[in-house]
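Q: what sequence does this backbone want?
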């Protein structure tokens, strides 16, 4: 049987493959998000990083399997809190050899310091969908205050698992030497740019 492009929607209906468009239920104004306690949805949360490699390329990698809790107060955002844990051994680049090197005691020393954590201390809104979140970042056994620039993406019921989900993106720049990770500085830049995609599922 041959299907034309025009007949594909009808065929999909017959097979029960359709789902409600995700955009139909998504709100894009942070003030409309449901307040409550959220857990990190690890499958769609990534902590990306980028360093300048020997002045040639902005080399990137990512951490995954993030866990944590967001207590979100949509009416009083300043009272919201965030706590996340990032397993250092989840680090991944395009080089398996480099992945193992980054886990070693020359870099992150994942065996001794298995987790990086961020715990917020303050939230300041900048307009409807943006905020500055300051907190304590612990990495390589060292804790330093760092600041995230956070942008709200959207919230609504996930069309696949039917869970109320909210999502953000965040950026920050840190100095790895502040945390005792000094290998190859300055040939591999001391400054590390972070780009975070955060998905959270409502728990109550």
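A:
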């Amino acid at each position: 049987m041959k299907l034309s492009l025009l007949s594909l929607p009808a065929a999909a209906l017959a097979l029960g493959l359709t789902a409600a468009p995700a955009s139909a239920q998504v709100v894009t104004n942070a003030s409309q998000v449901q307040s409550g306690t959220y857990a990190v949805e690890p499958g769609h949360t990534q902590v990306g990083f980028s360093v300048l490699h020997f002045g040639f390329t902005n080399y990137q990698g990512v951490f995954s399997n993030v866990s944590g809790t967001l207590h979100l107060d949509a009416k009083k955002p300043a009272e919201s809190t965030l706590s996340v844990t990032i397993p250092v051994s989840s680090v991944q680049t395009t080089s398996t050899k480099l992945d193992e090197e980054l886990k070693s005691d020359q870099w992150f020393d994942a065996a001794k310091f298995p987790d990086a954590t961020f715990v917020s201390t303050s939230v300041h809104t900048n307009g409807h969908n943006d905020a500055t979140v300051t907190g304590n970042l612990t990495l390589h056994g060292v804790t330093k205050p760092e600041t995230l620039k956070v942008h709200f993406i959207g919230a609504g019921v996930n069309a696949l698992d039917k869970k109320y989900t909210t999502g953000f993106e965040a950026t920050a720049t840190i100095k790895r030497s502040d945390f005792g990770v000094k290998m190859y500085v300055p040939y591999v830049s001391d400054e590390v740019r972070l780009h975070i995609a955060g998905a959270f599922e409502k728990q109550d």
